[in-house]
Design a protein that fits this description.
- This protein has a domain of 33 residues.
- The protein contains 1 helix and 2 strands, in the order E-E-H.
- The chain starts with 13 loop residues before the first strand and ends with a helix.
- The chain is 10% helix and 29% strand.
- It is rod-shaped.
- A two-stranded antiparallel ribbon has the order 1-2.
- The chain has 49 residues and is mainly beta.
Length: 49
């Protein structure tokens, strides 16, 4: 009888939103972003690499 190993990966896949600002904002202040990057994030994304 041959034995096969079964592997299951249970996780989630998320997106990271990275925004570039010139300086950190103060409390209750709005900071305008210079750029935006969207990429894979979370533990599930690490399985794809």
């Amino acid at each position: 009888m041959s034995s096969k190993t079964k592997i299951a990966v249970v996780s989630s896949l998320n997106f990271d939103y990275l925004m570039r600002v010139n300086q950190f904002h103060q409390s209750c202040e709005i900071a305008m972003a210079d750029g935006l990057e969207i990429g894979f994030g979370g533990k599930g994304a690490n399985q794809l690499l």
